Amino acid sequence: MAGFLTDEEFQLFSTLIYEGSGISFSASNRPILESRLRERLKLAKLASVRAYYDQIKRDQEEMKQLLDSVTTNLTWFFRYDGHFTALEQIVLPDLLAYKKKEASRNLKVWSAGCSTGEEPYSIAMLLKDKLPPDFTLEVIASDLSLKSLMVAKEGFYAESRVGGVPEKYLKRFLEVKNDGHQITEQVKKLVRFDYHNLKYDSGLSEVDVVFCRNVIIYFDAAAQAEVMGRFWNAMTPHSFLFLGHSESLFGMETKFEFVKTDWACLYRKALDS
Ligand SMILES: C[S@@+](CC[C@H](N)C(=O)[O-])C[C@H]1O[C@@H](n2cnc3c(N)ncnc32)[C@H](O)[C@@H]1O
Q1: CA of 100 relative to ligand 1 center, distance in Å
Q2: How confident is the model over 220-265, as pLDDT tens digits?
Q3: CA spacing 20 to 30 A to 213: which of 54, 123, 136, 266?
Q4: Residue whose CA is closest, atom 7 of ligand 1?
Q5: What's the gap in Å between 214 CA and the centre of ligand 1?
């Protein structure tokens, strides 16, 4: 509902959230921030927005809860199937040929902004199926939403949420349990979930593929550029980056190369070419 925050309070909170996460609130999405703050205030049993602001300044845990509450966590299995076809048909053969030269037998994929886990589990299922048996696979999945990470780690999804999973993977990698589907251990053990805020350095290195889809759309240009710089540093000299359909590096000063395939547009870091 509009009018919950004064202009000054809106400015205070949007700056706080931006500095804490890169997520940018403008006049058009102000009602979302207002409604999420209203809920947080109720839960914290505080009467005034100012009192809540002061509490957050003192309490890092409450800051995490606030950031969690303003995120959008919509996701689904095999979202944008063109990306998964490009992963299988273009990225994987390219990386396998490169790794042969490098004598490496490990593939590291990072799902940055993994939400409730459907994206990293989709990647793990596809690569478990397609990777040669002498290769090992690590999928690192990170998010700043603790609520989403709890769902992700559980790996249990209602019937209504597994619609995107191809039939052969549904049979092979999910087990029917109660009213839903449980990701099997063989897939679960390939994915490591971590709390991580993209505002900060991840400490990751040697990443072959980054999926960061439908995350930077909520950031402004400066925060997007910062995140891309961090990805660049975490990636191997020969690696790939997937962004969401409404996201691009167009207009950004970056060394990532644009790659157009029959199925999807993606980016690569190619220091070896
Ligand atoms: C819309 S979901 C996208 C999920 C998945 N990548 C997909 O495309 O289906 C966006 C996710 O990005 C996360 N996110 C937003 N800002 C973030 C930040 N600064 N650091 C880490 N995760 C963030 C949110 O918590 C949310 O789970």
Answers
A1: 33
A2: 999 999 999 999 999 999 999 999 999 999 999 999 999 999 999 9
A3: 136
A4: 75
A5: 7
Determine the pLDDT at residue 104: 84
Ligand 1 centre distance from Cα of residue 241 (Å)? 15
